[in-house]
TrEMBL record:
Residues 57-268 form the Thioesterase domain. This is Thioesterase. GO terms for biological process: lipid biosynthetic process. InterPro entries: AB_hydrolase_fold, TEII, Thioesterase. Residues 22-49 are annotated as: Disordered. PANTHER family: S-ACYL FATTY ACID SYNTHASE THIOESTERASE, MEDIUM CHAIN (PTHR11487:SF0), THIOESTERASE (PTHR11487). Belongs to the thioesterase family. It comes from the Bacteria.
Amino acid sequence: MNSYVRSLATVTQAACAALEAVGKAPRRGKEPDPEGPLTTPVSPDPGATRDDANSLTLYCLAHAGGSAIPYTRWNRFLPAGVRVEPLELPGHGARLREPLLEQVEPIVADLLRTVGPRRGAPFALFGHSFGAVLAFELTRRLVRLGTPPAALLVAGRNGPTQPLAHRPIHNLDDEAFVAALIRFGGMPQALLEQPELLRIYLPVLRVDLRLAETHPRPPGPPFDVPVTAFGGRRDVLADPEGLLTWERETTGEFELALLPGGHFFLDEPAFHSLLLSRLARLTPRATGNDPLSRGTTPAARR
């Protein structure tokens, strides 16, 4: 079972709860001010203590339509100095009953209310596919606020300046939309056999894909945040050349890591090994190394 299906299991559970509670799909409500109240740094997580001041929080964002909750399984193999915190979007997974947000800017504003600019507590951002778009925009906001992440890790998504590697599908009718998702390997049979759940899930996925397929890179300079791009060699949605263009977005360290497989490789041992290697350079307490002291170390460039 791949990571997409496992993510959908979480979505399905939340969808069942939502059906019982409200009997309808996610609402589309008023979007928060994209600038929000977070225009200046806020205090660190009140749960943080001096003992975990050197621990790294890895905030994780899921692919289009997915739940970020399955990322918590990574805590089973990550070192003691790293903890995963999923960033769930409104209208997704555990937040299914909240209104969907239909623009990237208010989504980033919502994420900032969870992440917040942190003082003295190191953190990094990870995003897969559409989650990479959000992680990138969240990094830009955090840089402007003066509290950048220790690193940006992206997977399964070409750089922000690159055109789509496929024809847009978000505006297709439901039948063609589902057929396209099946071709991409992103629609498990179990969901197709449950029309009520499919009715809830499709609007969420369609909104996410519209943003993923149409969001332009806003103008702005590269940031001084290390970037690692992960990709599958057989991914039809992200290719090595497109992944390499993430290097344009940073003046700091850049690393490209290619793996066997397609778009959904996050549960593969080879990816876990590469992720551990990258995080080791950010967690001195867990490894005894100074963070980011080794410079650029491309895992694979072709």
